[in-house]
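User: Hi! Is it possible to get a structure for several chains at once, not just one? Here's what I have:
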Amino acid sequence: MNHLVPLDNLVAALSRLPGIGRRTAERMAMTLVQDRKGLMRILANALLEADDGIACCERCGNVTLTIKNPCDLCLQPRRDAQILCVVESPGDIMKIEESGGFQGRYHALMGRLSPMHGTGAADLRVDKLLRRIAEENIEEVLIALGTDVESDATASYLKEILATRAVKISRIAFGLPAGSAIEYSDSATLARAVSGRQKMD
Amino acid sequence: MNHLVPLDNLVAALSRLPGIGRRTAERMAMTLVQDRKGLMRILANALLEADDGIACCERCGNVTLTIKNPCDLCLQPRRDAQILCVVESPGDIMKIEESGGFQGRYHALMGRLSPMHGTGAADLRVDKLLRRIAEENIEEVLIALGTDVESDATASYLKEILATRAVKISRIAFGLPAGSAIEYSDSATLARAVSGRQKMD
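Assistant: Yes, the chains can be modeled jointly so their relative placement is included. Here is the combined structure:
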């Protein structure tokens, strides 16, 4: 087979997408080459337009229109400006917003501590978090990270560096998911549900 | 959540890639937005360069540089010009070339008969195949399609319309894959291996 540089480059670029291995990238590239509806150019233009039109909010990290920075969530006056919800990524902000369960402001770390992947504290938006806590008179920092080892390590790290600040630190509750039953819950979930039990008023 | 049109468009375009559902497309889009190494633009440029630089050979359908059309495989004088291997897609040409087992020329149909997906004979490059058989003095048409129902239907259809032409029609052999044993073969494979038995010389 003769080498087709543009095809090789396309496969290499597609392989960098999350969850896409070399084989899948090759299949995608071949589909794009054979496509007769201009999908190659449609996708290229969508990427260019997203690259121009979309950015992460400089304040909270949320995905926003480039022309709206800081983003709507940062600027909405009705939101509770004293509670700051710390999440791993902009996608988490969307999920929590969809839930309708939170009315404060957000701060995305853009990752979590992961020695395995070479992500240290300096790679996260922690400096920015500390500045915001000081400048925005934050009273409570709600840590909304998951329950895996890396998330737990990140939560512990945040708790440590925030210890000297005059803020309340909280973490989202872990327990039975909505609609679940004791019968179908795993031990780890039940143990956390028991240790995190709440007083009934 | 406010609607971000460029993000929605990107997710829609990514969803059109083979094997990519809405969820995966959303995850890809978020990764691209957060990426700090310019992956969004790298991928866009790779797509634009592939769209400009790569095309399907007008003669055989093989993927080739736009500036080399007809492709190298069609023009190589050393290849046997009298046997034409009919495949479903350009990817199949690559696979057979890698095998080193075929030295003739190719013809990709760009699909197979599939009432389920609305692909009829008119959507395949059959007219072109008939023209090539006449113009290029083809002596043998080797049908290199798979063994599923749609491929079998396509092979039968080709056999029928080629019946009146002065060409030998053959189909690739089905039987035990290389390195396999009777013990581990399924019934359908064994049945075809027996019915397709070959005389030992």
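Residues 80-195 of chain A form a domain with the Dna Topoisomerase Vi A Subunit; Chain: A, domain 2 fold (CATH 3.40.1360.10). The beta strands of chain A are 54-56, 63-65, 83-87, 105-108, 140-143, 168-171.

User: Great, thank you!
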